[in-house]
Design a protein that fits this description.
- By secondary structure, the protein is α+β, with helices and mostly antiparallel strands.
- The chain contains 4 helices and 4 strands.
- It has helices spanning 5-15, 22-31, 45-52, 65-71; strands spanning 17-20, 36-39, 57-60, 80-85.
- The protein has a 4-stranded mixed sheet, sandwiched between helices.
- α3 (45-52) links the parallel β2 (36-39) and β3 (57-60).
- The longest helix has 11 residues, at 5-15.
- The chain is globular, with a radius of gyration of 12 Å.
- The protein starts with a helix and ends in a 9-residue tail after the last strand.
Length: 94
């Protein structure tokens, strides 16, 4: 089954618990709270290197950090976000 990641992300933001931002995402991955990490296609290499140290699924979306921020309904860029609780979404199936 193919999950529409954009639709699933919007639902996870609405019904679950999602941390936005590189620092918070790295912290969640380090603590083992993140079930999944989503990064923008232009996410800084140093952020990706830090995230790869942890046992968490990393999904790169074909969106820039500005587009990912807009998808999350935020007026700022989002290079990385952590799914803590997927809520009613099926985002973890991607």
């Amino acid at each position: 089954m193919k999950v529409d990641i954009e639709k699933a992300l919007r639902k996870a933001l609405r019904t679950g618990k999602v941390y936005l931002g590189s620092k918070r995402t790295i912290k969640a991955a380090r603590k083992g709270e993140a079930k999944m990490v989503i990064v923008a296609k232009n996410c800084p290499k140093e952020v990706l290197e830090k995230l790869r140290k942890y046992d968490v699924k990393i999904v790169t979306v074909d969106k820039t950090n500005m587009e990912l921020g807009a998808l999350c309904g935020k007026p700022f860029s989002v290079a990385a976000l952590a799914i803590i609780d997927e809520g009613e979404s099926e985002i973890l199936l991607t």
